[in-house]
Amino acid sequence: MQYDLLIEKVHFARKKYLGGNTMKNIFYAIIFSLVSTGTFAADPCNVSGGKINILANEFTTYRIFMDEVKSCAGADADFSVTHSVDHNKLQVAALSANPAEFSAKLVTNGSITTLMNDGLIRPLDDLVAKYGDNLNDNQKITIDGKIYAIAFMANAQHLWYRESILNELGIAVPSTYEEVIEAGKKIQASGKMANPYGGAFQAGWNLGQEFVNMYLGHGGEFFKAGSAELSINNDQGLATLNMLKNLTEVANPDFLTQDTNAVKEEWESGNLALMHIWNSGAASILDDEGDQMIKADTRLAPSPSVGGGSKPATTLWWDGFGIATNTSDAEAEASFRALLGAATSTEMANNNPNATIWLIKGYTPGDTAGPVVDAANRGATPYPSLPHMSLLHGALSTEIVEFLQGNESAQKALDDVEAAYIAKATEQGFL
Amino acid sequence: MPHKTFFWFFFPSGLAMLLFIGLPIISSFFQSLHIENEQILMEVENCDVFGCKTEVRVDLEATKIIDEENPLGRFNGLRTYADRNHLAFNEINDAWKVSSSYNQFFDIIFNLPFYKALLFTLTFCFAVTPPVIVLGFIVALSINTISQTIKGPTIFGTILPMIVTPLIGSLVLFWMIDAKGILGATIQNIFDDPNLSLKSSSELTWITLIIYGIWHNTPFAFVVFYAALQTVPLDPLEAAIIDGASRYQRVRYIVIPHLYPVATFIMLICLMDNFRVFEPIIGFKAEGAAQSLSWLIYSDLRNESIMLFGSAGATSMLTIIGVGFLLTPVLIRTWKEFKTER
Fold this sequence. Notes:
The structure holds 2 protein chains of 2 kinds.
Chain A: H1 2-18, H2 21-37, E1 51-56, H3 60-73, E2 78-83, H4 87-96, E3 104-108, H5 112-117, H6 125-131, E4 140-143, E5 146-162, H7 163-168, H8 177-190, E6 197-199, H9 205-217, H10 235-249, H11 260-268, E7 274-278, H12 282-285, H13 292-297, E8 298-301, E9 315-323, H14 329-343, H15 346-351, E10 357-358, H16 370-377, E11 381-382, H17 389-399, H18 401-404, H19 410-428
Parallel strand pairs in A: 1-2, 1-3, 6-7, 9-11
Antiparallel strand pairs in A: 3-9, 4-5, 5-7, 5-8, 5-9, 5-10
Chain B: H1 3-32, E1 34-35, E2 41-48, E3 51-58, H2 60-69, E4 74-75, H3 79-82, H4 89-98, H5 102-109, H6 113-145, H7 148-163, H8 166-176, H9 182-191, H10 202-229, H11 234-242, H12 247-275, H13 279-283, H14 293-301, H15 309-341
Antiparallel strand pairs in B: 1-4, 2-3
């Protein structure tokens, strides 16, 4: 309020005493500098010195976020961003170099651990103290008492369905995976769609993630408490594999080549009636491009539970940013300021309420936030931030393929995962 | 050429080879003998968006001290080569004991990552190389006889598959063979099976990759054969025409014997190239159905962000040995020919 009054006064003064347009800019500059050194915390935006070079995953919500980062950095900033779906594979090599290839990296609770393992991202406490007044407390990702990342959004995979198709066939919205398969078979039998279910089953990270979701839904634990010893070779592991196999029977036979983006395309082409993908997919599925009939018919539902459990078979994720250790302090500060500007931008969040669930102060969640909030309330587990988790994820992503192709038994697949993990973890010094 | 002149002529490229090929190979070999230092784990309090909990972390300071003492990691000898993800001696031994038939034994073996990759790599090599040589020869012969005016554009069109970057070429084909792509839909139409998909089964994916390999490699064979065709002496050919030899007979008894050493050369290069098959697997998103040795190295270095240098180094060494085995017969043959020509 005071701020507005101040501007008003400046306008008045300019009109009354000055008039010229050049004087207007000078006046504004003076007033703004007074404001920023006075009652307000340091303004993170309009960075002038220092290079900003960010590595990030590729999806629509990140594009929205990065546009905001760029506009916060200002026209004078030396700004660049690399979007890549292979960001996880690039990050360690890129940030290990000194000076690092990137000054900042968008991280999640999955990808932060490998950076932490090698000390590749720096503590941010001093920068947060200087610029971070507008942060919510839960945005600060604290590890052993130090802030290592700033989160800006929460994400989870959940169910999506086509309302008209379920209604027409008299199918209730599935709340368990058993019902999803039943619904899928019903749609197949009706002849409406050959492969009504979509999930990101591409061999690699996506497939590993499907196992992680389903295994946690069965109430499983990945490791023996406090150690890196694997504990997935059990009944829950078998049930998980069998459930994934059943799901692939109502999915496109090309499932091993389809990642999230491919599944979204299938959905937008009208080939799917049910799918389990990321909440952030709403940004591109519910936008004004593509078939508006399908968009109007698309509904979001909570993630199903499985095997009689109460927990939804999904994992909770936060997305945030970390700053490279091997970068100069000036670049680190410049990058931090631009990213923080976006991570505290209430305006961006409220202009794109359905792009994801923003963790930003003053954000009013949109219509699509429900399923993620529901997952959190029903006790969904966050993706484990453990140093050796990515070794298991990697072993899962290749070793369960043959089971899903029907070439080996579930027990054999679990034995293979265990053997592959042990070989990798031994080499890496965890066992 | 005097030895001294040859030495200085060869020196720059020899130096480049030593620096950029020789040294990295030695370095990979050393890395393959080592594994990472032990990771010191500790439990710390972590807080994120979803609350606080006590979790395991790597103790950076303790690990750093160990790393500084042993920057190469722990010496592991050849154990990485013998482990389950490489030559898997123990697993083969066990498989031999539990198997009641050869079938079962080979099932178990070709389920191990290294042997699975080796099987695909060798299949790819031996399925792609012969058709490439035959097709390349036929294309070269045909283009050699067409009229001068359309020769240029035809040659350009023919070598296009080689010019297109492998990754781009395979991606374009990947989209075309999609069930809704032009090739995929046509194939469904021909076989009258709406559920037929080239991406869905291992066998069909292998066939697709092999066809892609032939498509991509034929221009190389064509270029070499075409160049060699220009050196075929005209006198015997004209003599053969006068003697009443048919076109087939001329090709069979004059052109092919003349081009024989060239064919050996093409085979050598093709085998070597195809043994390192990698890009089409990424382009066709075929890692579920087909893994090659090069893909294994990639996967070790990019294993969901933790890099397994020792493991990747070991696979690289095994690949080099594999290329050596593959080329030995051809090299021996070339050497013998070289000797007799003297």
